[in-house]
Amino acid sequence: MQRITSRHNERLREVARLIESSRDRRKSGRCVLEGAHLIDVYTSRIGLPETLVVVDDRLDDPTIATLVARVSSSRVLAVPRTLYADLGTLPPDVATLAVVTTPRITPATPGRFCLLLEDVQDPGNVGSMIRSAAAAGVDQVVLSPHCAFAWSPKVLRAGQGAHFLTTLVEGVVVGEWVDAFRAAGGRLVATVVSDAPSIYGADLSGRIALAIGSEGAGLSQALLDRSDVRVAIPMAAGSESLNAAAAAAIVMFEATRQRRTTP
User: Fold this and answer.
1) Which of 7, 90, 210, 223 is the most buried (most CB within 10 A)?
2) In this predicted model, what pLDDT tens digit does every residue of 153-183 receive, in sequence order?
């Protein structure tokens, strides 16, 4: 274990660059996980972190000690609380963060139950959708190039470990992906605000991709033109729309309900 007291330490500065710069995260293929829960899920599902940074006065905490014991001592950096406060995006009481290799998976074929996100730019919404998708049993979450980066700190924080419980496919040209998905026997279900049948009367069984559009504009016309069915969530009079993450959760879990009751 290396004890660090200077903010100018090169290994610590590298961690800081990854936290601050989306460009560095994308270029290096690495991201930063903050908090013992996220790190524990990663190590259980994916592997060991490249670097583990721990607040030195929390080394005796059982949860932190368990993480430290898993990692080679050469990868562990112990820092004072003041240095950690300058480094992470969460309070020092979180006490640990890790630099990990960003999982990159290119599925050979689309899954049977997919969530397609087109230009959803709010990190909190993207993270919440990934979390709901994992809970609903979605095989793949497919993100267009203009979606928020799935491995940014805010998206990871909102996802609460769900990134490692489903398959994420980023930077997808959605038109081409949909054409391939439909050619393989899948159906594209476009979620719209109004002027469409209720989700509760639609057939959401079989191989489907549920499409959710950006917070303001919704789905593009090009994607709507490729859809096999359009659905809307019935709402009380006077309500114009739902938060994108809430809408995605409702549609996904209705699909899950149907899939569990359909022979």
Assistant:
1) 210
2) 899 999 999 999 999 999 999 999 999 999 9
Q: What percent of the chain has pLDDT over 90?
A: 71
Q: Report which of 130, 118, 144 is spatially closest to residue 249, judged by C-alpha positions.
A: 130
Largest CA distance in the chain: 62
Distance of alpha carbon 133 from alpha carbon 158, whole angstroms: 13
> In the structure, what pLDDT confidence band is assigned to residue 261 with cuts at 50, 70 and 90?
confident
DSSP codes, 100-129: EEPP----SS--SEEEEESS---HHHHHHH
Where does CATH 3.40.1280.10 sit in the chain?
113-261
Question: What is the dotted CATH code of the domain comprising 113-261?
Answer: 3.40.1280.10
Residues of the chain with CATH 3.30.1330.30: 2-101
| CATH architecture, domain defined by 2-101 | 2-Layer Sandwich (3.30)
**Quick one: tokens of 238?**
């006077």
Question: Using 50, 70 and 90 to split pLDDT, how confident is the model at 190?
Answer: very high
Lowest-confidence pick of 1-5, 106-110, 148-152? 106-110
For residue 102, count other CB atoms closer than 10 A to its CB: 17
Tell me the CB-side half-sphere exposure of residue 132, using CA atoms within 13 A.
22
Output the pLDDT for position 116.
97
**Residues 6+ away with beta carbon under 8 Å from 230:** 189, 190, 191, 192, 196, 197, 224
Burial pattern 169-205, b for ≥16 Cβ within 10 A else e, equals bbebebeebbeebbeeebbbbbbbeeebeebeebebe
